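Lecture 7 notes: from sequence to structure.

We start with a single chain of 259 residues. Read the sequence below before looking at the structure.
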Amino acid sequence: MAQPAARLRVHCTSQIVIPARLASTRLPRKLLLRQTGKSLIQHTYEAALEAARPDGVCVAADHAEIVREVRRFGGHVEMTDPGAASGTDRVAQLARQMECDIVVNMQGDEPELSGEAVDLAISLLEENPEAVMSTLATPIRSREQLDDPACVKVVFDQAGRALYFSRSPIPHPRQWDERLLEAEPPTFYQHIGLYAYRREFLLRLAEMPQSPLEKIESLEQLRVLQAGHAILVGLIEQGTIGIDTAEDYRAFVQRRGCG
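Now the structure, written as tokens:
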């Protein structure tokens, strides 16, 4: 019997863009915090450099202070429109000037995302030429996390294509059983907010209006699903803790052995 043909890896050039906004809502100026001896944006930039597949990393800044900080530690940075509506719009502004196939949107407040995770998101697009976008997910093992609206959940089909993202628990058990949190394969997955896009799709996405589901959940990725496009989901063993609050930053500092 003939063996199935191996999946071909399509060579693609890729770039990481880190959207960086100075006036964050819950922790203002967080990207410039430096209790570890390095600014948060520097930690994230150095994490991005650990990825093997991208050809480069660039910060998309909205303020001169961010620009000065990135240049201070020797990073690549470009100024973008301070009035950009979202990080995706900021990334798209730089993507218009880039010659690459894949653009990775890596959040500036994710300093502990591994290079392997970034490479996984890129490889999903390299190995699936028909796909236009990919992201990541990790198992949820606590009820507190499952019920937290700040923890975005995702469900996906057998081919790894996202079916829905929500701030509510999905799937929603009709009858709760604690064993659901221990099941293998896992029942619940947390969405990790890193995205890889085909460059041309990212430029179209930035021009698309918000969708009804996106407005309800305040989740931009629902715009993609509601428009009929597939999002591939790669699985990683452990999630990362984004820096959203002062408590998050203090915990990060302690994990770095500086607290």
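DSSP finds nine helices and nine strands in the chain. Keep this in mind for problem set 3.
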